[in-house]
Amino acid sequence: METYPTLRQATGVARTLSKHSSCTMVVYRVTEEKFVTAHPSDTVNGTIEAVYRDGYVVPTLLSKTR
């Protein structure tokens, strides 16, 4: 689990990790200027921004709609 100051940085890391590690990564918004990338099994209090698998965003019912 890592913390980033922008959504763009967090999603970039989540996409890369999900692509190279063949795992699912979740991007959470913790505060207005704090975003976390984590595995689905990690406990994070925040709003799910996106879920990535194999380098691509995966639509879920828990993600924000854009």
Strand arrangement, largest sheet? 1-3-2-4-5
CA radius of gyration: 10 Å
Q: Round the mean pLDDT to the nearest integer and report it.
A: 88
| Helix content bin | 10-25%
Beta-strand content = 35-45%
Please give the largest β-sheet.
Answer: 5 strands, antiparallel
Order of secondary-structure elements = EHEEEE
Class from secondary-structure proportions:
alpha+beta
Our count of domains comes out at: 1
> What's the shape?
globular
Q: Number of DSSP helices?
A: 1
Uncertain ranges: none
Total number of β-strand segments? 5
**Span from first to last CA?**
24 Å
General description of the model:
This protein has one domain. It has 1 helix and 5 strands. It has one helix spanning 7-20, and strands at residues 2-4, 24-31, 34-38, 47-53, 56-57. The longest helix has 14 residues, at 7-20. The protein is globular. The chain starts with a strand and ends in a 9-residue tail after the last strand.
In short:
It is built from 1 helix and 5 strands.
Strand and helix map with partners:
Elements: E1 2-4, H1 7-20, E2 24-31, E3 34-38, E4 47-53, E5 56-57
Antiparallel strand pairs: 1-3, 2-3, 2-4, 4-5
